[in-house]
Structures are given as C-alpha cells and as structure tokens.
Design brief:
The chain is an all-alpha fold. It has a domain at 32-92. It contains 2 helices and no strands. Helix 1 (11-49) packs antiparallel against helix 2 (56-92). The chain is rod-shaped and about 65 Å long. The model has no long low-confidence stretch (mean pLDDT 92).
Amino acid sequence: MNKPKIRIMKITDILDAKLNLGMEHMDLEHEQKCIIEELKQLHREMEEDAEPEGGDVCNQYADAIHFKELELEKITRKMKVIMDKIEELENLI
C-alpha cells in the first residue's frame, strides 16, 4: 500500500513563504487601488466627454472601462489565490 508523501517544511521556510506571499498580496492591493482610481477617472471623463445618446466617444470609454474591469477582476482572483495559500501556510504552524 502506497502512503501519500507528506512534505515537511521548516518553520522558517513557512514564515519566509508567508512573508513573500504577503508582499505579493500588498503589491496586488496597490495595483487594485490604482485600477479603481483609473476606473473612477474614466467614468468622470465619460460623463463630461461622451454624448448622452451614445456614439463613438461613448463606445471608446465603454471599451476602456470594460478592459479595466477585466484587469481588476484578474487581480482580485490572484489576491484570493494568495490569501488561500497564506491560510494553508498558517495551518501548518
């Protein structure tokens, strides 16, 4: 009968991994905040520049906003994965 291999980590390795993941998470948080500010700015500009009935300018803003929202979604997913990894490491301690 084959027993599953269990990986044993030293406490220092766990803490180092946690620290690195925490720093990566902080970087992503900063990116997330920047994108949120960019989205707010795009919405303000769209209200000023775009025609109420739509048109090319409105479509350009809509495309830019959509692109930023996709970026934000991607970063949010990465942050969730990192937090899950940090939680796993905390359970090892």
